[in-house]
Amino acid sequence: MSTRDPPDDIESAAWEQWATDIVDETGFDVDLGVGLARDAQRVAKGEMTEAEYQAKYHEDVLDEFGVDDRPTAPEPQAADGSPLPGIPGTGNGKRSRRSMLKTAGAIGLGTLGLSAAQQSTRTAAAQTGGGGSESDVQMGMAINTDRCIGCLQCMDACNEENGNPAESLWMAVLRYEEDDYTDTEEYLTRPCQHCSDAPCETACPTNARYTREKDGIVLTDYDQCTGCRYCEVACPYGVNYLQWADPGEANSFEGDTQVGDRTAAGSAPQGTMGKCTFCAHRQDSEDESLHGTTACEDTCPVDAIHFGDMNDESSAPRQHLANDTDGQPTYKLLEDKGTEPNIVYVGNEPSPTATQIDGPTGEDRFDLVRERPGRSRIELGSHDRDD
Amino acid sequence: MSLSNNDLLKPLTTISTKFLALVAVLGIAALVTVEAIVHQLRFGLVVTDLASWGTQEGVTWGLYIGTFEWFAGMAVGSIAAVGYIRYRELTRYDIIARIGEIWGLISGLSAAYLIVIDLGRPDRVLNILTAWFVTVQYSPLAWDVTFVTALLVMTSTMLILSLRRDFSEMNLNKLPIYTAWIGKLLTLGYRPEEREKLDSMLRWLGLALLILAFTGGMVPGWLLGVVGAQAGWYGGIAGISFLAGGLLSGVAAIALIAGVLRYSYGMESVLSTDVFVGLGKALTLFGFVYVVILFNEILPSIFPMAPLAESRVGEAMLYGHFATDFWLAMAAIAIPVLVLAVFRERMLASGTGLAVVSAVMLWGVFVKKQLTVIEPLMYPSGLPYEVGSYVPTLVEWVISIGAILIAILLFVIATKLVPLGRSPPGTQTPTEVKDQ
Ligand code: SF4
Ligand code: SF4
Question: Of A176, A211, B22, B35, which residue is 20 to 30 A from B15 by alpha carbon distance?
């Protein structure tokens, strides 16, 4: 679909039809999408300023998506008073706003060098065989913890998307405080780091933990895993969750668990190891609008999570790092462990003495829990007690 | 000749009520253990108190892996002792070698099945073998499986070959029917000309066991020692530390068994005092070395210049959460070492004293192994996670302690099936024995 060449003239009926077809696939407001796309072309040609573009659709975009996080937005949207956190109508199985914006971007924003557009362009290039070797792709994220408001919506979205039981927090937002007399609360949005030199993989005695060639995502073959948990002790980030109990109803993943020739998407069956898959089922979905998206990224109300190919300068994470860090420091978590993580953080790095605090939102808000079923309730502050 | 032979064969030829009572008690314990295992197989690892480290604030490896490490250590120590005795042809220690062969084999098997019990999907244990050709290139757990397999194969070969030799010297008709049957099977096609070759095979197999113990025997230590993510595990001394603990616990187990056998069967003639003196010397040395290595492992972490993550683990061990367990374990090893060093002759005269001391040391090593496994997982470093908690459930205790009782049951049964050695050729006449 995306390989179809667009007609040159954005005013022509042919262009209109072409754009309508593409936006239609995303299931969002067609008029809005086509308008966005057409004006984006105008911005590219210099017929319209970014500010005008931003202003013209702001209300409509807010209505449709609850938040306007177009790349031309001047600043994080919390500033404009939209109800954060807890935006209704996003995530949770609905087609994401981002996928539509990405489609609009694919149609029109490309020349602005904006993330989503390039993401789709790259996909198209790869499909037509023009995108270099497959293994050049390394999916990853830029996570702006400076933007994070600790609303835990990504955690909820992740569990919904992957059908995880309440205690398997593949995405976890750690709320912590530094012992530096500033009393500032910080948040660390922590999915699996999809390390390029993943110790979990080296540990695995069954070859169940693997990095797939295609895009460098680290996955667990649920048919192969014996549940020995050596990957879990080898990972310095604590992102692995064994499925301790029979998940029963809790395992509600409805997507395709098949990733290539291995069973590795969605929640882990009992006795096997689960962890963030970078929504592998989305990346392999027949629905191209889901490619290059994750549930957490889609749902984040402050656009803190940017997912894409770390080797592609024009990808969402790379663009975020290039343009939107607002002078904040960037870092990779525990880089000295030599794991070569593929998540780049923007914001302050937690120090080794940071201690957890409750934060503005608790897991219970989303029926998520920290403790494994059958184990006693967890209370914060154990570090303090013990030190 | 006949007296010492009789002494040697006493366990085979007698069955006392006490013995039957012991078997009954151990048998019931085994049944309870099997019931607990079945329970866990049905409901999965959720019946344990294990949980993921990180947000679940749990400990992902616990009692099963700790007990595995303990058994693996005893297996290493046992085969090292067997290897040394067979290689050096210390005939006086023949019974010790046999005990070591049987206990090494049982320990290896116990270690192996504890690993399987710890799996989330025990039905898939074969995946570890089918993936072996790839994973052995990098996964320490695959090395571990390789090592335990090699240990089992080599130890059973040693047991079979040494039994073949011992049976060939015996009058099978004087043995209980089932033992005679085993003897017939093991001496199948035996010709006296083969004796020389058999002796030299045992010698070289002994050397091979010794080498396996001192090389591959470090692998269960590396299983933890190569994990860079866990402060308290990572480090160059893990293999050595495991080996030292293994030598100590292996020899202690053998000494304990020997002491009990001597006591219950009055085997003074074949288990002479100097054998116990020898074992006592070995225990003194290994215990001392183990304690020195442990303190080398732990002490640097509490110096002010140590990295934070290491010091958290070290402090919890030395004066924090785990201090009581840790110091009790240390005392259980260090005090016997002192006692052995000071009161050696008097204590060891009967073998009973040595057995008591050995049991205490074994308990100390057991506790230390548990702490080694649990602690780094409980004190995560790097990210702002909470300190974890772990209170093993009844199921975990039953299965772990049950594994020990089952191992003892297997050994007790083995003493009724196979001879514990052969009479030292030409060394002990009835009069000499009486003189001792
Ligand atoms: S973060 Fe942990 S689980 Fe994820 S790839 Fe790295 S080592 Fe493996
Ligand atoms: S738990 Fe599964 S994925 Fe992890 S190391 Fe063991 S077999 Fe491999």
Answer: B35
